[in-house]
Amino acid sequence: MLTRPMLAKLAAGAAATAAALVTTTSPAAACPPGGGGELRVFAEEPGHLVPGNVNQSESLIVDSVLYSGLVRYDPKTLQPVNVQADSITPSADQKVWTVRLKKNLTFHNGERVDADAYIRAWNHTAYGPNEQANNDFFRSIQGFADLQAGPDPDGSGPLQPAPPKAKRLSGLQKVDDRTFKVTLNEPYSGFRTMLGYIGFHPMAKACLADLKACDEKPIGNGPYRFESWEHNKVIKTVRFDGYAGDKGKSQRITFKLMENVSDGYTAFEKGELDVVRKLLPGDKLPEARQKYGANLIEVPMASLQRIAFPTYDARFKDKRVRQAISMAVDRKAIIDKIYHGAHVPADGFVSPVFPGARSSCAYCSYAPDKARQLLAEAGGWQGGKLELWTNSGADHQVWMAELGEQLKKNLGIDYEVKADLPYSQYVEKIHANGMTGMFRSGWNSDYPSMENFLTPLYAKNGSTAVTGWSDPRFDELVAKGNRAATPEEAVSFYQQAEDLVAEDMPAMPVWYVKGSTLYSDKFTDAVVNPVGGEPILANFTRK
Question: What is the pTM of this model?
Answer without folding.
Answer: 0.85
